[in-house]
Amino acid sequence: MQVYHTESKREAGNSTYKSKNVDKPSVFTVWQKSSMGFQGTDGFSVYDDAGQLVFRVDNYSRRQKYLTKEIVLMDGNGKALLCLRPRIMSMHDRWNAYEVDECRNKQQNSKLFSMRRYSMLHKTDKAEVSLSKLAENNKPKAVPGFRIEGCFEQRSCKIYNSKEEEVAHISRKMTNGTSVVLGNDVFSLVVQPGFDCALVMAFVIVLDRIS
């Protein structure tokens, strides 16, 4: 899976997760389960390479999209970071993302990005992201931001910026010191220095819904 990036109003280097070593990639283990641990709850729990919980999604619902109002990405302490909402009447499985403090804002320019499946005719992991940017007349406009290719269900994804530099990738998780591959509910996410880790995690959540 490949994603090509251009700048958005959320700066790429303004990550909500601060790596201990800014010169090395941030390595995460993503567990597709709510950190709350209640029976019947879905979600995401994301741990860094030191085992610290850094991102989470609790009470994540896998119900039909028209029953899902919004999904909130939080940091490890439960602070809301991004709000994701499906567009109900969308044939492309479009989702919109907002900064949390703008999530209740009804203004069009409060949207951070939109992500949709590339084709409405075929169920494919190919997707594209449009970033929201204010034009000179202070009106919002959509600009190309990312293109996503690959197979999220196989946990094989790569993320590139507009210069075709790799900024992140998703892969199957292997146990330390062995070649044993874990199930799809646990996978690895590696984000290169200077890129917004929360933004990448938001893509992962949407991919899980449209794949």
UniProtKB/TrEMBL annotation:
User: By its UniProt entry, which Gene3D superfamilies does this protein fall under?
Assistant: LURP1-related
Q: Name one Pfam family in it.
A: LOR
Q: InterPro entries attached here?
A: LOR, LOR_sf, Tubby-like_C
**UniProt similarity note:** Belongs to the LOR family.
- What is this protein's name? LURP-one-like protein (DUF567)
